[in-house]
Design goal:
By secondary structure, the chain is mainly α. About 50% of the residues lie in helices and about 10% in strands. It contains six helices and six strands. Strands 1-2 form a two-stranded antiparallel ribbon. Strands 3-4 form a two-stranded antiparallel sheet. Strands 5-6 form a two-stranded antiparallel ribbon. α1 packs across α5, α3 packs antiparallel against α4 and α3 runs parallel beside α5. It starts with a helix and ends with a helix.
């Protein structure tokens, strides 16, 4: 499933950011907020386009936006799409998400979802919110959710052809399959 190259990339960046900076559970273990937020944020977004970013303040701001985006995915996962869309609309309004054609880094013209004058964190938040709005605004909404493995609350977006992914990672999928296998072996005399 590919929305368009840029939008799909930004959706993937949003999922990575949410998973890497919001506390909760990951792969069966508690997942605290990262001690080095700057590195976690830098690893989640393509730094090649914005060298020197994020600062500690920018990383904290974008992590706050990630928390709000996570809440949207949680609402989608519980099938409260109306509330998810209302919250996402509010995020887009607050970040002044505005479609803008841009050309940089020897790339062709492409659509950005933030003002050309937005600060670093706000521009990423606007882009991520608008990219997620693309997912929520079509049948692909079923491909966005929270990992179904026990003790994991990481986000996933399913980009496979068949649309059957329900885990944040192969590690969680394997944990669930191994537990089911052990349960079957224990149940058979």
């Amino acid at each position: 499933m590919d929305f368009d190259g840029h939008t799909s990339d930004v959706v993937a960046n949003a999922v990575t950011l949410i998973n890497d900076v919001t506390p909760g559970e990951r792969h069966g273990r508690p997942f605290p907020a990262p001690a080095d937020l700057v590195t976690a944020v830098r690893d989640a977004v393509p730094s090649s386009r914005t060298p020197g970013h994020p600062t500690a303040e920018e990383a904290a701001e974008l992590a706050d936006w990630a928390g709000r985006l996570r809440a949207v995915v949680e609402l989608v996962d519980t099938r409260d799409v109306d509330k998810a869309c209302a919250e996402l609309n509010e995020i887009m309004r607050t970040t002044n998400a505005i479609p803008t054609l841009a050309r940089h880094d020897n790339e062709p013209w492409h659509l950005h979802f933030h003002s050309a004058h937005a600060d670093w964190a706000e521009s990423w938040a606007a882009s991520m919110a608008t990219a997620l709005a693309t997912v929520l605004g079509n049948a692909a909404i079923e491909r966005l959710g929270i990992c179904t493995a026990p003790a994991c609350d990481r986000v996933y977006v399913d980009v496979s052809k068949n649309g059957t992914r329900r885990f944040c990672s192969t590690a969680c999928q394997n944990r669930v399959k191994a537990a089911a296998f052990r349960a079957r072996r224990t149940a058979t005399p």
